[in-house]
Amino acid sequence: MSNFDKVYIVGAGQTKYEKKTDKHVIRLMWEAADLALQNAGLQWSDVDGLGQTCFTLAPENVTTVAEHFGIECRFLFQGLYGGASGCIGMHHAARAIQAGDADCVIILAADAFNVDSHMNMNRSAGQHDYMGVWGYGAANGVFAMQTRLYMERYGAKSEDFGRLCIAFRQNAQLNPNALLRGEMTMDDYLNARQIADPLRLYDCVLPCCGADAIVMVSERLAERLKGPKTRLLSAGEMHNYPASDIYALSAGWETFSPRMWEQSGLTPQDMDVVQLYDDYPVMCFVQLEGMGFAEKGQAARLFKERDCTVRGTFPVNTGGGQLSAGQCGASGGMIGVTEAIFQLHGQAGERQVPDARRAAVSGYGAVSYGRGLSASACILERV
Amino acid sequence: MSNELKPQPRINAINRPFWEACNEDKLHIQQCQSPNCGKWAYFPRVCCPHCGSGDLAWKDASGEGEIKTFAVIRRPQHPSFFPEAPYYLIAVQLKEGPLMYSRLQHPYEQGLELVGRKVSVTFTDHGPQQRLPFFVLQEDSGAAVV
Predict the structure, then answer these.
(1) Among A31, A78, A207, B143, which is least packed by CB within 10 angstroms?
(2) How far apart are CA A264 and CA A261, in angstroms?
(3) What pTM was computed for the model?
(4) What is the tally of structural domains in chain B?
(5) Which residues on neighbouring strands pair with residue A112, listed in sequence order?
(6) Quick one: closest CA in B to A117, which residue?
(7) Burial classification of residue B52, based on how many CB atoms lie within 10 Å of its CB (0-12 exposed, 13-18 middle, 19 or more buried)
């Protein structure tokens, strides 16, 4: 049934998330990759493929990082899709491994980010020249406008976004690596300072420093490993969708999700954990709707009617997500992937969802003129 | 810091006609010249994003449109904007079709509900060498949002 029946994800690694670091971002990449290899029981000498995403690496790139690490690679992937790159990198690596092009691929993302580097990123024309010149407030301004439109169109209230943020915060309280672990009530959420109305402080991620990585291997390599293994059952991606409408409140998940679910042989109801790209709460709603977890405009009901914490029946962003763990720049596109693997492999510590076997992970990124251009997702199942 | 020059557009072969027209207080956007299309495009392109034709012409736009969504920017991305905050960032659906991001021109009240309001273009200085299109509310457009 699955596309990738000879491909296994065998390890994950995440560095410490920190508000500041003296480490170079390539060191952060190495640390996450090394942790993932140790987690899998593999050596650097096994690695023959690398995929990486990083906003602050230029003029270095995946090829020069391979040089830096001293690894000979038969497969490379440079994530150019922002926070959609984690799922897409896994997907492309799975194709390469299935085809026999590579045996052991590390997919990673990293950044050493703070508010200033976030605000001062070198940006595409769509963002810099046709929004930035007017003082658009960076991504906060872009997603404040998306959030207002969602509220206007579907009647969502601030409290709807607040419930999501509070559930993620409760998950973060069980994650020693999350940067925001203080208790948050609805009053705290609603009374936080406004950043770009209708967005308040806790609708926005905390830029930070760190890296996330996973290791994917062929069946041949997997056979000698003793640890838990996860299969990528299916995945999808869509870009610049819909081309003619910036305010469709979609980036294309609904275009590939029917095929993704069909190839996986599973349905949204079969998922034990869901990891969304939570740059802003509104995009979590859009992802849940696009992937079929809720009808269009109805995702808020999930957070109203179900317990979305790790103790509940619908655990979402089980490590706290970017909203409470922090956003290490491009690593925001990998945090959901590593968290899913920790959960499926029973390595999530206090926040472990009992016997989690199946996960949906989504990605979103490449913010340009008024929206993110890239949507991605994948379905994972522990063997 | 607030005296710093504001972020400037990176003028190139694609967008030069747009920015030069701004400096003459004119809003020029592109219209596809293909007989089967004729649609308008903004931001500046090398080809029509609707049909793929390379035959685009710069035309005088009406300068009128309707606010589709907006944000109140309290923490701008660059210190040069700090003295002006908070301000309204607006997404204007131009009469010709395309969506254009801009800002509401002073003076304005706080706490406005702007979705659906009609606006007209105006131009304002953006540093010594560039004029920038902003928008003002049309007088009679308040009734639409009761």
Answers:
(1) B143
(2) 5
(3) 0.96
(4) 2
(5) A209
(6) B77
(7) exposed
Please tell me whether residues B114 and B125 are part of one structural domain.
yes
- Whole-complex ipTM: 0.95
Distances (CA, A) of A33 to A69, A111, B90, B99: 10, 14, 43, 43
Which tens digits make up the pLDDT trace of A57-83?
999 999 999 999 999 999 999 999 999
Number of Cβ within a 10 Å radius of residue B21: 19
Which strand ranges, in their side-by-side order, compose the sheet holding B28-32?
B40-41, B28-32, B56-60
The answer to whether the Cβ–Cβ distance between B49 and A244 falls below 8 Å is: yes
Same domain, B42 and B55: yes
**Cβ pair A330, A53 in contact under 8 A:** yes
Is B1 inside any structural domain?
no
Question: What residues of B are in contact with residue A133 (Cβ under 8 Å)?
Answer: 6-9, 126, 132
- Among A120, A134, A148, whose Cβ lies nearest the Cβ of B101? A134
> Which range marks the domain in which residue B35 is found?
9-61
Buried b (16+ CB within 10 A) or exposed e, A289-326: bbbbbbeebebbebbeeeebbbeeebbbbbbbbbbbbb
Query: Chain B contacts of A127, Cβ < 8 Å?
Result: none
Tell me which residue has tokens 């992802």. A287
Residue B144 confidence (pLDDT): 46
A110-to-A54, A89, B139 alpha-carbon distances in Å: 5, 14, 50
Same domain, B44 and B94: no
User: CA of B124: how far to CAs of A125, B63, B85, B132, in Å?
Assistant: 21, 14, 16, 5
pLDDT band at A243 (very low <50, low <70, confident <90, very high): very high
Beta-bridged to residue B32, according to DSSP, are B56
Indicate the number of domains in chain A: 1
